[in-house]
Structures are given as structure tokens and as C-alpha cells.
Amino acid sequence: MKGNILQLIDSFNQGGTERQTVQLTRLLHGGGRYRVHVACLSGQGPLRAEVERLGLGDIPEFPLTSFYNRNTASQLRRLAAFMRERQIDLVHAHDFYTNIFGMTAAALARIPARIASRRESDGIRSPAKRWVERRAYGLAHAVVANAEAIRQQLIKEGLPPAKVVTVYNGMDTTRVAPQPDLNRAATLAALSLPVAMGRRFVTIVANMRHPMKDQATFLRAARRVREEVPGAAFVLAGEGEQVPSLRSLAAQLGLEPDTFFIGRCARVSDLLAISDVCVLSSKGVEGFSNSIVEYMAAARPVVATDIGGAREAVIDGETGYVVTPEDDETMAARIVSLLRDPELARRMGARGLLDVKEKFSCEAQLERIENLYERLLATTKTTKAMASPSPGVPATRGGGNEQRSSTRA
After folding, report:
1. C-alpha to C-alpha distance for 274 and 336, rounded to whole angstroms
2. Average pLDDT per 10 consecutive residues for the chain, totaling 409 residues
3. Which residues contact 376 (CB under 8 A, 6 or more apart)?
4. Could you give the residue range(s) of every CATH 3.40.50.2000 domain in the chain?
5. Looking at domain 184-359, does it have CATH number 3.40.50.2000?
6. Contact indicator for 304, 137 with CB cutoff of 8 Å
7. Using DSSP, how many helices (H) and how many strands (E) does the chain show?
8. pTM for this one?
9. CA 332 to CA 401: how far, in whole Å?
């Protein structure tokens, strides 16, 4: 083992960040290079069982109610003590709250290698929150961006280019692999979708907790598509507070008979297998969309809005189309072109699957992360070695303090 690594996760809910963190934990544990530890701000969520099956030991919880009360100071001391007790060499935080909490605690514990993350573009956080997060980035030795577009945003905000590293989300391609022997009728019935012959399915997989996912534009495009392709049906997978208003919009647009809200889908592989075109309609805050990569891994053609790292995943005209956010007219035209030309859709899907295997696989993600860890830990060892006294020369107390200061820079 080359060191003790702590993965700090907000919760174990079914969000994109949480899924990526749990997946990375599993990959690092399976790689065998590091002894992996996990801590969280909230221990709730269905993904916890997946981590527990790895047998990594206890998963301590450090609940926060605010960054501005006594509880936060208490939890910081607890986390710093935990890091020292486990002799953590590297801490990796994965989102806004764990960046701030984790980097602060890691600095207090004098952890030699500290990594923060940014997974969304600018716009979702207030200026005050961004200011606080930048202070956390100052305590980190590296910041992982999950798309080059996010890396460039961080550099624009003032982070040194050498400090920001792009590591794309990893995709387990076996999870949504194409299913050539799929029983389409049985799968549609299991998903509570119509089995009628000639139905063509246009699918969007995105949570409905935030208007930035902009399923409203998807629905407006759907009305245009149905005028051109009468057999088209539209599937919205996801859950959240926006569902009632989106259902209402679908009714206003006259889409009720052809629109299906299926909630959180536990059978994403089956859903994508019966889908003819897959869509991302977000109008902001995306970093690198997990949904886009899932679509491509299922060999589906993609129509995605031009936000975050969409252009880094979708090659316009080759694996799908990239359109301007909120442009339902162009979105509809691209969807129609794919529905009318199944062979074009098949070619785009096949090319997308090849791209995922090459650029966005779990193996590629693990290699990039381990290379980053190795570099940071090697730098730490070199710094310690340079600060060590020569044989026969006694170490002074002041020298020891200077070394600690340089490690924390």
C-alpha cells in the first residue's frame, strides 16, 4: 500500500456526484495501491450499501447544519482528529460543501496532500459562496475539474493553471451496454410504456429538482417533434419538485397522451435500450453530464445543449448534435432528423460507444486519478526528504516548523 486515502462525500443519495464518488472509491479499492477510507457529512442514501460491501471499515459522519455555528467548529475538530488517527496521507473532497469542510479540516490536521473538486459551471452559487469556496481551493494542492470547460472557468476565476486537473467522469460501460437480444415488448411493459407498434421513444434522464435542467425546453421541442413524427413518444426519467409544473406544461402543450413521467428509473439500461434518441436540455450549471455519457455508452445518438463539457463528449454531427440552450426549435429539428434516419442514428450511437470506451471509461478515470495522487504524494515525500537534516546535523525546532509550513503551502 502506498498510503491512506480519504474520500469525503456529502451523502449517499443517487446524485451524479455521489455516484461518481462511490464508483471512484470502488475503483481505488480494487486497484490495491492505497488503503481507502470514506467519511461523509450525511450517512443517508441508497449508495451507502455499495460502499459497505467493500469492507473498508466504519464510515464516520460529520453532520453540518451551517458553516457559521459552534457545531461546525466541533465537527472540524472531529474530522481533523479522525484524519490524524487514521494517518491519512491524502484527502479528496468532491463537491461544494465537502470542499470547504474537508480542506479546512485537512489543513488543521496538516494532511500533506489535499484535493478539492468542481463539478458544475458558474451560476449555481452566490458570489459569497464562490468566495468561500475559493478560500478552500487555496488550501488544496490540486483541484479536479470533470470537464476542460470547468477547468478553464476555474483558471478564469484566478486559480493557477498547474493546480487544476481535468479528470472526466468514468462510465461503467457494462451497466448500460447495448442489448441486441432485448425483448422490446416485454421491456416496454415493464417500464409502463406503450407497446404499440411504430412508437419511437425520445428520452431524457435528469433530476427534476432544479429548473436549470430545463425539461420545459424538452417538452416544447417534443410538441414540434410530434407534429413531424406522429408516432413519437417522450419519456422523462427523474424525480423532484419540478414534476407537477412539468406535468402541467405537458398538458398545456397537448402532450399528455404521448408523454410519460416515469420517476426515478432503476432500469436505466432497459430504458436506454428502447430509446431511439436521448436528450439533455440543461441551460446551465452542468459540468460534465453523466447522462450524456450513459446515453453514449448505450450506443444512443445524443441531442444535447451546449453547456459545460457537452462538446467534449458529443462530437457535433458524428455522435449526436449540440444545440443552443433554450432553442427548442433547433432541438426538435435535430431529434426529427434522427427519428427519420434510423441508420444515421445507429452510426452516431456506435461511434459514441467507441468514444466512451476510449475517453470516459472507468479505467481511464482511475488512471488519471492515480497519476494525480502519485504526483502529489511524491511531491510530499520529496519536500520531506529535502527538509530532513543531514547525518550528524541535529534538527532544530524551528526547522521542523518551517517544514510544516511549506507542506501546507
Report:
1. 17
2. 92 88 96 96 95 96 88 95 97 96 97 94 74 94 94 93 94 80 88 86 92 95 96 94 96 95 89 96 80 93 93 94 97 98 97 92 93 92 56 40 35
3. 90, 113, 115, 141, 142
4. 4-170+361-407, 184-359
5. yes
6. no
7. 16, 12
8. 0.79
9. 63
